[in-house]
Amino acid sequence: MDSSSQISEEESWHLAYGVFVCTLEALASPAEEACKVMGYVNTAWELRDDGLAGSYLLGRGYFSHDQEREIRTFLEQLDTVPVNDMPSGWSMEPNLSAMRHPAWEPIRVSARALLASLALVTRESHAYIESLGNAP
If you compute the radius of gyration of the chain from its CA atoms, what whole number of angstroms results? Predict the structure, then answer.
């Protein structure tokens, strides 16, 4: 593979951040919406796992100290969700049941708060990604 087909570390970070934001949006949503977004496939486990991958975004200089602290606190909270004790599968009912578990309620509240805290970073990241489409 030649270097012209590789993406930069900066682009990689912004792409990963976009996935993290989509995960936060799903986590902030009601159970039905989160399941629909995830395609009714092991929704609880996938959302928890995708959310925890947000740890790879830290320490790279894109967040303020306070934002990094808020993200770490959120990840610690998300890590306690007992997804292995929840129903899973490839259909609507077990996934809805899992996402209706009471452990998700504080996560939904925290995800909404984190999205608000990261709004400026999110706008800047979207602008960066959009600028790539305008590159020569």
Answer: 16
Rounded CA gap, 38 and 36, in Å?
Answer: 5
Question: What's the chain's length in residues?
Answer: 136
Q: In this model, does residue 130 exceed pLDDT 50?
A: yes
Euclidean distance between CA atoms 11 and 21, whole angstroms: 15
At 66, list the tokens.
């306070």
pTM for the model stands at 0.93
Give the helix, strand, coil percentages of the chain, each rounded to 5.
Answer: 75, 0, 25
Structure tokens, 103? 């452990």
Residue 1: pLDDT band (50, 70, 90) is: very low
CB atoms closer than 10 angstroms to residue 28 = 19
Averaged pLDDT, 122-131: 97
Q: 111 Cβ partners below 8 Å, 6+ apart?
A: 24, 25, 27, 28, 74
Which candidate, 83, 108, 113, places its Cα nearest to that of 98? 83
